[in-house]
Specification:
With 296 residues, the chain is of the alpha/beta class. Helices cover 44% and strands 24% of the residues. It is built from eleven helices and twelve strands. The strands form three sheets. Strands 3, 4, 5, 6, 7, 10, 11 and 12 form an eight-stranded mixed sheet that branches. Strands 1-2 form a two-stranded antiparallel ribbon. Helix 1 (3-15) crosses helix 3 (29-43), helix 1 crosses helix 4 (59-86) and helix 2 packs across helix 3.
């Protein structure tokens, strides 16, 4: 049994069709069929049910698929590590959620580059849900996110604390207030981040826990757009305190404390449980923890 067999098997599972799998692998359909037959003879089990012109994976096939994906991924990681050894320092692919990307990512990368002159860093910034999918698909090596991770295949390690705050603009009726009661939030319309955002998920969770109803007046993927909308009196929002520090200092936005509500959270380092951690990745993880250890 070879990696070639496993790649063919995975492609047949993904496409559900031997002809399509062959096209994707630049093979003929008979060659694909032969490889699957060889695997079934090797293991002594049927991997697919052939009903009419359609293929249905069997229970044995599903079990094999999990191992096949893992072995192919390990081989890809092995090749990547060997390529890194050939290069001067290797590359670290970082995926950051929006709040992390705005508040701390640049500082972390700047410090990493100063300590690893031969290393290279590629970054992508999106919401937590997207970054989680990218880690699972091995499109990034490590995620730095503020949202909750749902996959049991991923490892999370905390590296920094954060707090969401309620903000209003200078024209808002609450502009002169320092505190509000929790009941005053019931039925209020908020400017919010999109679904999949860690900030949105925490906000919804806390509001639901306290039995508060709310509605979105504006849904936006950009923290800057949300701040501008609030500053111009178009509504209120709950957002990371770090993101609005400058605007609060300049008087463009005002933080209003909510009695009996806590929007505390942690920024997390996330990676796949089977991920091979190169020296570059290990150094990056250590840097994140040491740089912000006083905030934990």
């Amino acid at each position: 049994m070879t990696l070639r067999h496993l790649r063919i098997f995975v492609q047949v599972c993904d496409s559900g069709n031997m002809t399509i799998a062959g096209q994707r692998l630049f093979m003929t359909q008979p060659s694909v069929s032969q490889a699957i037959s060889e695997m079934e003879r090797h293991y002594g089990v049927q991997l697919f049910e052939r009903l009419g012109k359609r293929l249905y994976i069997t229970n044995a096939g599903r079990k094999l698929l999990s191992y096949a994906r893992h072995m192919i991924k390990l081989q890809q990681e092995m090749d990547k590590v060997m390529q890194e050894e050939k290069s001067t320092g290797g590359m670290v692919r970082i995926g950051a959620s929006v709040t992390v990307g705005i508040c701390v990512l640049a500082d972390i990368i700047q410090d990493y580059n100063s300590l690893n002159h031969d290393g290279r860093v590629e970054t992508v910034v999106d919401n937590t849900e997207v970054i989680e999918r990218m880690i699972l698909a091995d499109e990034v090596d490590i995620g730095l996110v503020e949202g909750k991770i749902h996959s049991k295949e991923l490892v999370t390690e905390s590296f920094m604390n954060d707090r969401l705050v309620l903000i209003a603009g200078p024209q808002h009726p609450w502009k002169s207030r320092t505190n509000i009661d929790i009941s005053e939030l019931n039925g209020v319309a908020f400017i919010v981040r999109e679904k999949g955002s860690g900030t949105r998920e925490l906000f919804e969770s806390v509001m639901t826990t306290h039995g508060l109803e709310w509605s979105p007046s504006w849904v936006c993927t950009s923290a800057e757009a949300i701040k501008n909308a609030v500053a111009k009196g178009m509504g209120i929002t709950v957002i990371s305190k770090m993101i609005v520090e400058d605007e609060v200092k300049d008087g463009k936005l005002r933080i209003i404390n909510i009695k009996d509500i806590n929007f505390e959270r942690r920024f997390n380092i996330v990676y796949h449980k089977n991920k091979f951690l190169s020296d570059g990745l290990k150094n990056f993880i250590v840097l994140c923890k040491e740089k912000y250890q006083e905030t934990q």
